[in-house]
Amino acid sequence: MEDKRTAWERLQLIHTKGRPTIKDYIPQIFTDWYEMHGDRLFGDDRAIIGGIARLDGMPVTIIAEVKGRDLNENKACNFAMPHPEGYRKALRIARQAEKFHRPVICFIDTPGAFCGVAAEERGQGEAIAKNIAEFMTLRTPIVSIVLGEGGSGGALALGVCDELAMLENAEYSVLSPRGFASILWKDASREQEASEIMKITAEDMVRLGVAEAIIEEPLGGAHNDLDKISENIKEYLSQKIPEKCKKDIDVLLKERYTKFRKIGAFTE
Amino acid sequence: MFEDFFNVVKKRWGEGEEEYKPPMFKCPRCQGLSPLSKYEELRRVCPKCNYHGRLSSNERIAITVDKESFRELNGRMKGADPLNFPDYPEKQAELRASTGLSDAVITGTATIKGSPVVIGVMDSRFMMGSMGSVVGEKITRAFEYATEHKLPVVMFTASGGARMQEGIVSLMQMAKTSGAVKLHSEAGGLYISVMTDPTTGGVTASFASLGDIIIAEPKVLIGFAGRRVIEGTIKQKLPDDFQLAEFMYSKGFVDMIVERRKLRSVLSHLLKLHGYTPKEA
To answer: What is the ipTM of this complex?
Structure first.
């Protein structure tokens, strides 16, 4: 293991050009990938993809936020910032998984839900709220992995799960450090300072009970060895998915509720 | 000297009225000025444009539920400091002293024209009604209590969103509260969400938007992203009515817009329509 990087160093690292995205991982980890399109209500959001594939031969449902690897890809996927129809597509595909008894694997990688006029008009808040509530009682196992950025409600909309894993350098936060600095101190330039006090690293997530596992990245970060990082992710999923599938679904749902139920700090 | 002249003019304009400047209310929506007493008399409704201003949680409870029916739940719960965030404990202590609140929400049981309810009221005076651990826990417990006792929930939301000082722990309160709403819903319970000024961010993206019935007060702010954030993204000024209750209503995210003076009666009717009738005396 390398010396632990600071939160700020990790933020730089996950924004490195060449950091693998879900598009790199799917062919490495899964077989028979079929993508499904659209929320059946409005359109097909390219910031979230979903579909069916096999993990070690077993049918699974994949839902993932998509980062682009270059400007053109980023334009197409709106820099991984979903609109409401993206979250609604995710829910539709999750419901399909429930019907056909497939476990759901969510890959989180977003700066946050898109902030724009159309997103507000189509109910960004409602779409996220609905996913959070519905995933809580979805009667099939859900495992989520944060690949890079876990930005706010836009991440949580795919983050209600039985177990959450973080890639070693991934972050999960209530808001981007930049936004955080500008809201709290009215000074966006203090983002480095914000990143350090916000507690956003994989280790912070485990300590705070938000994540259960950390997936180790190759030396220097995921972009240095796609085969290795894919192997690590696959190893994690190959162990977790069968484990969760063996559990009685009512027990699993109770544990899922409890996982979130106990997060918080207060006195009485 | 100039001031004297000005007073003379004002006296003439006022047609002999006593020279008295009443405290004024400037409406954040229409920018209109009205006497503060008039605004207060209307229970903080702008006489010019019908903007429904902010009430404290105690005032809200007083005008909503039957006299002496409110019993607070978890009233002693106080916030901690999960991230060791600079100055956060001091800030909370200060606000507890100045507002008399323990945090940004009050929950409890009450009756509305005889119908029993679990009620929650957020208070924007406490860190902009932001949702940290205490808000998340009290709301979750309120829904769990309602599920257990087969009661409906009426929730008045007023929040700027997540409690920044609690970081990711604050974000997780969205999952916690929404989960409790879902279980209450699966048990057949009625949940009426009443959006008041302002309902934004993580509260909009969790329990506020999950009501079986969603009511909003006129002209209140409802949205997910902040106006300035959106203006920064699109590099344009947004229209004045963007994200107001009426806008969200026209887009299909609010069932009805109800004036404050009619709210208690509307709530009572809706509760009775769902079979929550007053207990026999």
So the answer is: 0.97
